[in-house]
Amino acid sequence: MTTIGRRNDTKPARKLPWIVEFYRSDVAKKWTMAVSGIILLGYIAAHMVGNLKVYLGPESINEYGHALRDLGGHLVPEEHLLWIMRIGLAFAFAIHVHAAYALTRRNLAARGKVRYDAPREYLVANYASRTMRYSGIIVLLFIVFHVSDLTIGTANPEHVSGDIYSNMVASFERVPVAVAYIVANIALGFHIFHGVWSLFQSIGANNETYNKWRRYLAWGFTAVIIGGNLSFPIAVQLGVIS
Amino acid sequence: MDLTLKVWRQDGPGKPGEFKEYEAKGISSEASFLEMLDTVNERLVEAGDVPIEFDHDCREGICGMCGVMINGHPHGDQKGTATCQLHMRKFNDGDRIVIEPWRATGLPVVRDLIVDRSPLDRIIEAGGYISVNTGGAPDANLIPIPKPAAEASMDAAACIGCAACIAACPNSAGQLFTSAKLAHLNLLPQGQPERYKRTAAMVEKMEEFFGSCTNHGECEEACPKSISIDNIALMNRDYMMAKLKDRRKFGQR
Ligand code: SF4
Ligand code: FES
């Protein structure tokens, strides 16, 4: 039935807000993963760089922590801007995990139960790309511990709110924590190594001239971030920071 | 050369299947892979057995019918060719070859090595065409097309719809096929009016059957026509545009 005057071809009737309709598609979920991935990568980079201040001594990093709480200066009440950022980050994280979960389920269903009998040698799919879901789960579990250890402090009996330096030392002095931190960061390394390369493909940022740089960027970004992150527990264990 | 084949046998759709071993003795190294199967089948018929069913048509790498998994490699371990273009000289005397149909929920086995590739037709039906008004055939060079665009479009148009990309994909994703079918139209001036409508329709149809791309790149390696995954990036971009663009302004650049 055609309703005269209704321009069906130009403005399709939408049942739900377009973003919800959009998110139903798998390609859109990959977009969502890429965009939330960019936000998370930005956070990881800032987190690593900020933590480097630990090498400048307790005052430097504690002051940095205070500055984060005081973002916005006299314009907004203390911690408000930080909380907005935290909520934004948590949202990006949640949607990244949800899209990954939904896509994994779809993919397992699409693959079906029957596997190839001959061993499949993957030609170009690398270890990182095939273990995204596992590295992702390791990182997810680690983050739960990490936040309760160093942000909230429930997992660290010696936690003193605001004294980032001592908290970090107290946390990484425990060998199992240092080891867990190193393992989780290696998993994170694999995850972002594929992620950094892959996100360009998902958002269609594909240009012959720059394509080869995506791999270099993935290597470089991963090396810098993970190198920086791994240096903290190692430095505490070696007594460089105490 | 003497070979041992381990072949998937299945009586019909949804029926249980199993692997059977066959001796293939005295095969010429000049034979193509399909000719080798022909020889084996002739002997099976002579012995009163049911021949191994496999799809084939052109036997020159252009129809896309002949895809099978050979020792875990789609179309065999030779880059850029279909099964029919693979020759027995690539194998060694005494080899054991495992031959399986494509495996994916969207590509159910019809019989033995034949799978139902009709979901690919459904994707094309959803938008893989250009609507034209009837009339006199326009002059071939009436619409100028930049050379690189024409080349890129031709590269994408080389897709023969064999479904090796889906078979090779750890997610059974149909992205390479669909993006190739989109790119060869979306890159040309003639494809512009329906570009975003086509992209949305074909992507959504694809998602009814197949998994989703995690950017492994296995499809590109498996593809007998070496279709590039760059097409997938183009498809992802166009899909977003299809959802964002104000369709009333499609005439504008
Ligand atoms: S993209 Fe390549 S592998 Fe996929 S259907 Fe087309 S020709 Fe076959
Ligand atoms: S038989 Fe036509 S592509 Fe192989």
Number of helices of chain B: 8
Helix-strand category of chain A: mainly alpha
Number of separate helices of chain A: 9
Structural domain count of chain B: 2
Q: Characterize the main sheet of chain A.
A: none
| Fraction of residues in H or I helices of chain A | 55-70%
In short:
The complex is a heterodimer of chains A (242) and B (253). Chain A contains 9 helices and no strands.
Describe the structure.
The complex is a heterodimer of chains A (242) and B (253). With 242 residues, chain A is mainly alpha-helical. Chain A is built from nine helices and no strands. Chain A has one domain (27-110, 118-238): 3 helical TM bundles of succinate and fumarate reductases, CATH 1.20.1300. In chain A, helix 2 (26-51) packs across helix 4 and helix 2 crosses helix 9 (211-238). In chain A, 26% of the residues are buried. Mean pLDDT of chain A is 87; it is low at 1-9. Chain B folds into two domains: 3-111, Ubiquitin-like (UB roll), CATH 3.10.20.30; 117-249, Orthogonal Bundle (Fumarate Reductase Iron-sulfur Protein, Chain B, domain 2). Chain B contains eight helices and seven strands. Chain B has a five-stranded mixed sheet. Chain B has a two-stranded antiparallel ribbon with strand order 6-7. In chain B, a hairpin with a 2-residue loop joins strand 6 (109-111) and strand 7 (114-115). The relative contact order of chain B is 0.14. The model of chain B has no long low-confidence stretch (mean pLDDT 92). Classes of the chains: A mainly alpha (242), B alpha+beta (253). Chains A and B meet through helix 2, helix 4 and helix 8 of A and helix 6, helix 7 and helix 8 of B. Bound molecules: iron/sulfur cluster (SF4) and FE2/S2 (inorganic) cluster (FES). The site of FE2/S2 (inorganic) cluster has 14 residues of chain B, from loops.
